[in-house]
Amino acid sequence: MRTLLAVVMAAFVFIPPEAEKFDVYAVRFATIANFPVSSLISGADRSRRLDIAMTVWVLKGVNGRVALVDAGFHRDQYFTAFAVKDFVLPSEAIAPLGIKPEEVTDIFLSHMHWDHAGGIDLFPAARVWVQQDEFEYYTGEAWQSKNTHGGIDADDVLEMVKRNTMGRVTLVRGEDETSISGIGFHVGGKHTWQSQFVSVQTRAGSTVVLASDNVYLYENLDTHKPIAQTLNADSNLRTQDRMRSLASALKLVVPGHDPAVFDRFPHISDRIVKIE
Ligand SMILES: [Zn+2]
Questions:
Q1: What is the mean pLDDT of the chain?
Q2: Alpha-carbon separation of residue 107 from 94, 138, 168, 220, 241 (angstroms)
Q3: Extents of the domains making up the chain
Q4: How far is Cα 228 from Cα 226, in angstroms, rounded to an integer?
């Protein structure tokens, strides 16, 4: 009887589900040549220039979730406004990972700027996760003044509103409530109204922080300088410190536009490195 009881009880012991784990990749879909470093790092010498990497990040889960952090861009006007080189559509740049655009389940949007939100329409099935304050501000009040929507494309706003009417937007409220196993959403360093960054549990057992533009370059981290484009420099520095504390190692804080990312990690293909 006692044996039977033990067997019955064992059957009901709660085994907590393991947090989902992801393989994390940086995918370079373009370069913008000759970009002023003073627009990336507060106080940098105005003569410095850099060919910056334009990147989307891919999170491949073990349970079928295929998420992007940010979606890149493709609209025509940016090819004349900036010196864009080596461009492939973000939806095609992920092909070497065996991912078709319609298989992308989620986009974790760090912020609404054109070079990150401009490719959402390339991924028709994806649910977009964005900070509620970011969504509300850039679909509303930001357009009441000429000076409060720099870098935001009206067509991207329309795509976001449309996707919300399709039931495919999740509004993230700060750091809490909204959760996906193995993923953390974190309030960013005021790169935009309410930018966010993402932490990821990897299959290798580490925590990777995908900063996107809340940190532009490794130099921001190494010299503890705020990004040049932030609504609050102190908040940006505090956020950089937070990223360091969340990541398993400093090298696992991945900045948004640094071409060195593609030298520091192992290559899967010419445009893709695995973050580990
Ligand atoms: Zn950017």
A1: 93
A2: 14, 18, 10, 25, 25
A3: 19-182+255-274
A4: 6
pLDDT digits (tens, 9 = 90+) for 174-204: 986 567 999 999 999 899 999 999 999 999 9
Backbone conformation region of residue 95, classed left if phi is above 0, alpha if psi is from -120 to 50, else beta: alpha
Q: 40 alpha carbon to ligand 1 midpoint, in Å?
A: 10
> Tell me, which fold does domain 19-182+255-274 have in CATH?
Metallo-beta-lactamase; Chain A (3.60.15)
- As a whole number of Å, the CA-based R_g of the chain is 20
CA of 247 to the centre of ligand 1 (A): 21
Percentage above 90 pLDDT, the chain: 87
If you measure from the C-alpha of residue 168 to the centroid of ligand 1, how many angstroms do you get, rounded to a whole number? Answer: 23
Distance of CA 82 to the CA centre of its chain: 21
> What is the Å distance from ligand 1's center to 270 Cα?
21
3-state helix, strand, coil in the chain (%, to 5): 30, 30, 40
pLDDT tens track for 56-106: 999 999 888 999 999 999 999 999 999 999 999 999 999 999 999 999 999
* Helix residue spans in 108-231 (DSSP H): 114-117, 132-138, 154-165, 218-223
